Fold this sequence. Notes:
Chain A is of the alpha/beta class. Chain A is built from 15 helices and eight strands.
Amino acid sequence: xxxxxxxxxxxxxxxxxxxxxxxxxxxxxxxxxxxxxxxxxxxxxxxxxxxxxxxxxxxxxxxxxxxxxxxxxxxxxxxxxxxxxxxxxxxxxxxxxxxxxxxxxxxxxxxxxxxxxxxxxxxxxxxxxxxxxxxxxxxxxxxxxxxxxxxxxxxxxxxxxxxxxxxxxxxxxxxxxxxxxxxxxxxxxxxxxxxxxxxxxxxxxxxxxxxxxxxxxxxxxxxxxxxxxxxxxxxxxxxxxxxxxxxxxxxxxxxxxxxxxxxxxxxxxxxxxxxxxxxxxxxxxxxxxxxx
Amino acid sequence: xxxxxxxxxxxxxxxxxxxxxxxxxxxxxxxxxxxxxxxxxxxxxxxxxxxxxxxxxxxxxxxxxxxxxxxxxxxxxxxxxxxxxxxxxxxxxxxxxxxxxxxxxxxxxxxxxxxxxxxxxxxxxxxxxxxxxxxxxxxxxxxxxxxxxxxxxxxxxxxxxxxxxxxxxxxxxxxxxxxxxxxxxxx
Amino acid sequence: xxxxxxxxxxxxxxxxxxxxxxxxxxxxxxxxxxxxxxxxxxxxxxxxxxxxxxxxxxxxxxxxxxxxxxxxxxxxxxxxxxxxxxxxxxxxxxxxxxxxxxxxxxxxxxxxxxxxxxxxxxxxxxxxxxxxxxxxxxxxxxxxxxxxxxxxxxxxxxxxxxxxxxxxxxxxxxxxxxxxxxxxxxxxxxxxxxxxxxxxxxxxxxxxxxxxxxxxxxxxxxxxxxxxxxxxxxxxxxxxxxxxxxxxxxxxxxxxxxxxxxxxxxxxxxxxxxxxxxxxxxxxxxxxxxxxxxxxxxxxxxxxxxxxxxxxxxxxxxxxxxxxxxxxxxxxxxxxxxxxxxxxxxxxxxxxxxxxxxxxxxxxxxxxxxxxxxxxxxxxxxxxxxxxxxxxxxxxxxxxxxxxxxxxxxxxxxxxxxxxxxxxxxxxxxxxxxxxxxxxxxxxxxxxxxxxxxxxxxxxxxxxxxxxxxxxxxxxxxxxxxxxxxxxxxxxxxxxxxxxxxxxxxxxxxxxxxxxxxxxxxxxxxxxxxxxxxxxxxxxxxxxxxxxxxxxxxxxxxxxxxxxxxxxxxxxxxxxxxxxxxxxxxxxxxxxxxxxxxxxxxxxxxxxxxxxxxxxxxxxxxxxxxxxxxxxxxxxxxxxxxxxxxxxxxxxxxxxxxxxxxxxx
Lengths: 292, 187, 665
C-alpha cells in the first residue's frame, strides 16, 4: 500500500516523535509514505485567523502539488493540517467564485479530481484493525488509555464526515487492537486551547488541566492523541502544572507511538524519550491492580 | 441569505458575502457561549458578539477581544440549533476588523499570527525559532517558556536554523497575489 | 339563452384596479347576456337581491358573478340562485379579485382582462348542466382510534348523544400518556384521579364498544359508509373469562422485562397488567419475553388461573365494523435523545449523553418518579442509586426549536410541565435546589402565567435564560454547562439529576396509520387539518376528524376541547339520515369506455369501480369503469389520464373548458 504524505511543519520540529513513530509503524506494516515534493505550510490557525483567501490558497498549493505527483490519497497526521486541507478542498469545490480567486492566487488551475485526504486515525481505519491485530507482538494490557480526539478530527462534521461528533469511537477501536483498555471519559473532543499556547499560556494550561484531570478520574494512565498541538499542550504544559502543586503526571502519547509499542518497536525508535512526561517503563505490560 | 430591501452597504452585507449567512438567524439561545472552552477568558460572550452585529453596534463587535480569542474549535457551530456557523462568523469579523483598520483588542494573539505568517512567507514552512523570537520581541513576553526552551532545543524539537523550501518564491507569490486580490475587492 | 352578469366592486379590492362600470357595459354586449349590472358589494343582501330579482323577472337561465374567489362566496351565490328557483350549478364565478385586481396594477389592462374572464365564464355557463347533489346514506356509528384522554372524551360525547362508538386502543389499557402523569397543570390535580372515572365510564357505557390491545388494519368506503377492519391482537388471555384477580401476574417467574408504563424505570413480568387502574383490568402476555413462548416450558400462569382464562394458542382476530365517522386521536410520543443512524434527518443529543446517563431523564420518566404509584412510590429518587437528588436541573427545548437536530417547532407544553416538575420537586424535597434552563417562557393559557410565576416566586425555582451546551458525569454528579444570557455569565452546575423536556413528536407508526386511514400528514408526521384557522378538526378526507396531539403538540384542555369538537362534527354527520355531496364528480361514458382502468390506477380516492355491462341474457358485453360518486373528490386526474376521453368531470366537461378557451380568442 502506498499513500501520499503531508507531514506539516510541526512534524519536523516540535512534533518530531509523531513523524518518527508514524514512519516506523508504516515501515513495520509495509505501507509506503510518498512525501509531497516541496510541500509548504498549510497556514494553520494563523492564515485562518487573518485572511480567508490566504487560508484556502496555502493548502490549495499542496493539493496542486499532490495532484501533479499523481497522488490520489494523502495522509496529514497533524489534525490542523488535515482540517485546513479538507476544508480548502471542500470550499473550492462548492464555491466557483472562490475557486477562481484561489487559482489566481496560486497561479495555476486546481486539479480536476478530488484527492482523498485522511487524518491519521482514518489511515489506521483504512489499514484495518485486523491487520494491526495480526502484526501485534506486545500486549499493552497494562495501559488504560483515554483516547483524545480534540477539535479538528471530528469538526466541522459536515466536511470531515468522520466518526460521531460528540462521542467518537474510531480511535478507541483502533487502539483496542493493542490489547490496552480504553476508558470511557468525558473530554474526548473538548478543546485544549490550540494555538493560544504561545500567545495565552494560562488559557492552555487551564484547559489542559481539565482534560488531564478528567482522563485521570476516568481511570486512564495514559492519554492518546492524534494532533501535534494537542500533544504539545497536554504534554509540555504539564511542566507548568507541576509548578502549581498537587499535579500528578499523566503521560501523553501519539496514537502512532502506542501502536508502535504494540508492534514491538523500541521506545527510542518511536521517539518516546522526547516527551516531557515519560511513560513509566513498566506501565505498558504490567497488569493493573485497581481498575477504576 | 441577503436582506430583502435595498439599503446602504453595512457590515452585515460584508459578513453575508464572506460567510453566506445572515446574522438574523441567531435567536440568542446562548448554547455557543455555554460550550465555548475559551468563554471564561473572553470580555464579550460569543452570543453577545452576534447580538452586537444584529443591533448594528458594529464597533463593539469588532473591538472585542472575543473575536481574537476564538480558538476556532467549532464546538459552537456543531451544537448550534440554528446551524449558524459561528466560527466562520468570527473568522469574518477578524478579517473585516483588519480590513477596516481596527486595532485588534488582543495584541498577543494578533502578534502571534503576524509572526507566524511572516516566517511562513519567508521560508515556505514555519521556522519555529523565528516565530518565537519575533513574538517575544513584539510582545515583550521575554521570560515565557524559558523553562522548557532548553529541553526543546536539546530534544531537537526546535531547529536553530530555518528550513527553506525549494520554491520559496511560489509561497511569496501566493501572499502577494492574495493581497492584490483583497485590495481589488475593497476598493 | 338568457344569461345575467353581475360585476362586484368588492369595495376597493376590485374597484381600484378594474373599471367595473366599463366591464358591465362591455359585457352587456356579449351574445346571450340579457342583464349586466355592477354593484359595490354583490355578496351583501341587497347585492344578492339584485341577482334573485333578475332571475325571477328576466327568466335567467344562467348567472355569472364576477367577484372574489369562488372559495369565498360561490356557496353564497349558488344559494341565491337556488332560492330563486335556478339550479345552483347554473351559476359561475369569474374571479376578478385574486386572479385580476390583486395581481395587476395597470388599470386598462386589468379591465380588459376582467372582460375576458367574464366572457369565458359566460361561454362556460351556457354549457353548464343542471346538477343535483349526490345523496348517500349514513351509518350512525363512530370509530374512535386511540383511547387517550382525547379519544375517551370524543367517545363519551358521541355515545352520550345516543350513538354507538367503537373505541380502538393499541395498548392493553386505555388512558394514554395522561395516565402516566403524576399531577396536571395548572391545578396540580392528581392526573389519574381525574382520568380514571372517565376510563370507567367508557368501559361501562352501554353504547361504547371498547376494543383494547387492537389496531386499525384497513379502512374501506367513504364518509357515512366506512368499512373498518380491526386487528384484535392476541392477549393470550380470554377476556370474557378473566376476572382480573391478578394471580397469574403474581406467580409469573419472569420479572425482569422493562415496564413501558414506568418508562423503563421499573420491571414487570411477562404476563402483566400495565398499571393497577388499567381499563380493562385484564392481563396480556408479552410473547417476546414469556418463557413459554420462547422455550415451550413454564406455563405457570395457566396452571394457577382458576378460570382457565389463559390461552397460549390464541391468535390475532379480525373484526369488521360498519362506521359512519372516524375520529383519530392517536396522540404523541416523546423524542428520544439517543444516537440516530447517520442518514437520519433527526439527530440525537450526543452533548447530553445520547441517553446513556441513567440520571439524565425525560419528562415522562420524571412523572413516574413523582407519582405515588411509581417506581419510588412518589419519593424523588434518582434512577442510578435511588438517592434523593439535592440539586436538579431542568432543561427546556430539548429537540424542540432545534432546526439542526430536526424539529423546528415549539412543543408548547414543556414550559408549563417543567414549572410543574420543578414545583413538585421543591414540594417534596424542601432543601433541594431546582434550576430551569429556558429560552423563552410560553405560558399562554388560563392561569398559566400565574403558575410559572408561582414556581419562581413562591417555590424558589431558579430560572436561567440560556441553552445548555453539555452534560457529563463526574464523581457521581452531572456537570451542566450553560450560559445565563441575561447577565452574560457562564453557569456551571453540578447536578444530581437532570430532567430534559424533550419534544412532543408524532407516534412511531403515525405515517403508516395515516396511509391506512387516508389522512394527510405533514413533514413531522402530524396529521394535517384542512384549514389551520377555521377547520382545525377536519381533514381533506371527508368523514374523518382529528382530536388531540396527533394533529400537533397541545395540552390536556386543548385535547379535550378538540375531542368534543371532533365529536360534534361526527354528530353533525349523524344528524341526517342522508348525506349531500357536491355533484362535481367524474362520470364515465360507458359507450366509449374501453375498460383499460388507467383511471382506477391513478385515482387517489379508490373511487373507480368495475362495472359489468350484461345483455338481457346475462352475457357479459363489456367491462367498464364506474365512478362511486360518494368517494369521488372531483380532482380530474382520471379525466386527464383516460386515453379514450371517456371520463369527464361534471361541471368541468371538455366542452365547457374548450368553450372558455375559445372565448378568450
